[in-house]
Design brief:
Blueprint: H1 2-22, H2 27-33, E1 37-45, E2 66-68, E3 88-97, E4 103-106, H3 108-111, E5 116-120, E6 126-135, E7 140-145, E8 154-155, E9 166-171, E10 179-192, E11 195-203, E12 215-217, E13 222-231, E14 241-245, H4 246-259, E15 265-266, E16 269-273, H5 276-281, E17 290-295, H6 300-304, E18 311-315, E19 318-319, H7 325-331, E20 338-345, E21 348-355, E22 357-358, E23 383-387, H8 390-396, E24 400-405, H9 409-413, E25 420-424, E26 427-428, H10 432-440, E27 447-454, E28 457-464
Parallel strand pairs: 8-13
Antiparallel strand pairs: 1-3, 1-5, 2-13, 3-4, 4-7, 5-6, 6-7, 9-10, 9-12, 10-11, 11-14, 12-13, 13-14, 15-22, 16-17, 17-18, 18-19, 18-20, 20-21, 23-24, 24-25, 25-26, 25-27, 27-28
């Protein structure tokens, strides 16, 4: 019995030693890269003290679960640091040097609204930095300090980064300079509510306030991302963090240095995910691609002949697996570039060429909620519909208004009163007569796609008649 226990003990020690030996050693990486990582503090000369979230660097409209890494905790009236009059205010973040003559990358929210930006180097020198340019959409900023022969980081290729790969972050969480944390890449190409044109790298690297703008390294010591956001319900790290891919950051930085602003490719479509039921309704063998639910007037998509109901499966030969892949791929193109789109239309595959436009700042058109004349039609899917009025027709172009939802397939699919139905099973609906004709011929026992507009937002839903 003692021999068996000794065997188990030795086996456990051997296995533990093997696992320990297989873990990476970050010692050399940290020694080589730390000199190029900087601490960034900012000062805002406040004329009048206010106690809002914005005073401490946090936008009022930021979603609760997605927070940037701000370098100060919110003070309270009982805290000696609570503002009581005119005073300067500061925030804390991180950054890294990308050129020997002093160009530095960091997050936009670290330096946004600052009157002074102070960069502290690894050798404890403090230099005042100039803001060369910033892009709020991608949360990136380019700084410049007046110095020569500075240590720089090696830049990697974020496209080559793989899920499961070890990564290391260096920054100043809570003001503790040059803190090192490590983890793995959890996912790639994540879209967040704050920015659909950045395919974020998701990691489980421990990130906290003050890490903002700091570098994310691979095991080769190359920067593959810029730590930017966390997912949290508590305000602190909860195991999910997001970094801007370095390939995206460099493109933005170069545009900021050259033009002072950032241009992104624009297609001009509203898209949605292709679910399993929608894939079946469109005759696809798998749920993949970006489903076009709306083509904006005057957009490159409209000019190229792209239509509502098309499913985009490739851009320049690169697969579009999720709908979120499309804005990432289009956004990396420049205005005037020609892009070849592989699409599925009415069950048939084809390719169209579109000249990419420049992403505009104008708001998407909204659908009026006014109701139209009371011409109605009952049908086999359980809806009563009417024609659109002139204003609705001018803005939407076609469709019928849902006046009443009765028990039936439409109710099961989620159609509600006030929806505008503009396409069913690939056929445009321009009138109540079109609607009645198309619904009458719908097949049974299989899903068909139906395009609706609800409060100005278009989407496809699967409709099935048993």
């Amino acid at each position: 019995m003692r021999s068996f226990a000794r065997f188990l003990l030795l086996t456990s020690v051997f296995l533990a030693s093997s696992v320990w030996a297989s873990l990476p050693d970050f010692t050399d990486l940290v020694k080589e890269t730390s000199p190029a990582v900087v601490n960034i503090s900012t000062i805002k000369h406040a004329k009048q003290a206010s106690h809002s979230a914005q005073q401490y660097g946090m936008p009022d409209d930021m979603p609760e679960i997605f927070r940037h890494f701000f370098g100060r905790q919110f003070p309270s009236p009982n805290n000696p640091g609570f503002p009581r009059g005119q005073q300067d205010r500061s925030s804390l973040g991180s950054g890294f040097i990308v050129s020997k003559d002093g160009y530095i990358l960091t997050n936009n929210h670290v330096v946004q609204g600052a009157d002074e930006i102070i960069v502290r180097l690894n050798d404890r020198r403090e230099l005042e930095a100039t803001l060369i340019g910033a892009d709020e959409s991608s949360d990136l900023a380019v700084l410049k300090v007046d110095a020569d022969n500075l240590p720089t980081v090696e830049l990697g290729d974020s496209e080559a980064l793989e899920v499961g790969e070890w990564v290391v972050a260096i920054g100043s969480p809570f003001g503790f300079d040059y803190s090192v944390t490590a983890g793995i890449v959890s996912a790639k190409g994540r879209s967040l509510p704050s920015e659909n044109y950045v395919p974020f790298i998701q990691t489980d690297v421990a990130i906290n306030p003050g890490n903002s703008g700091g570098p994310l390294f691979n095991l080769e010591g190359e920067v593959v991302g810029i730590n930017s956001q966390i997912y949290t319900r508590s305000g602190g790290f909860m195991g999910v963090s997001f970094a801007i891919p370095i390939n995206v950051a460099l493109n933005v930085a170069e545009q900021l240095k050259t033009n002072g602003k950032v241009s992104r490719g624009w297609l001009g479509v509203v898209i949605q995910e292709v679910s399993k039921d929608l894939a079946e309704s469109f005759g696809l063998d798998r749920a993949a691609g970006a489903l076009v639910v709306q083509v904006l007037g005057g957009s490159p998509a409209e000019t190229s002949g792209l239509m509502s109901g098309d499913i985009i499966t490739k851009v320049n030969g690169k697969e579009v697996y999720m709908s979120s892949d499309l804005p990432h791929q289009i956004g990396r193109l420049s205005a005037g570039d020609k892009a070849k789109l592989d699409i599925v239309r009415s069950g048939k595959r084809k390719q169209i060429t579109v000249e990419i436009g420049d992403l505009p700042s104008a708001d998407d058109p909204q659908l009026s909620s006014n109701t139209g004349p009371a011409e109605r039609q009952s049908n086999r899917i359980g809806l009563v519909v009417s024609e659109l009025n002139d204003r609705q027709r001018n803005e939407e172009g076609n469709g019928v208004l849902v006046k009443e939802v009765r028990r039936g397939p439409a109710a099961m699919a989620g159609v509600t009163r006030g929806d505008v139905i503009s396409m069913i099973n690939g056929e445009m609906i321009r009138s109540v007569e079109d609607f009645a004709r198309v619904v009458k011929d719908l097949p049974e026992n299989r899903s068909v796609p139906m395009r609706i507009v609800r409060r100005g937002q278009a989407s496809f839903i699967p409709l099935r008649i048993e």
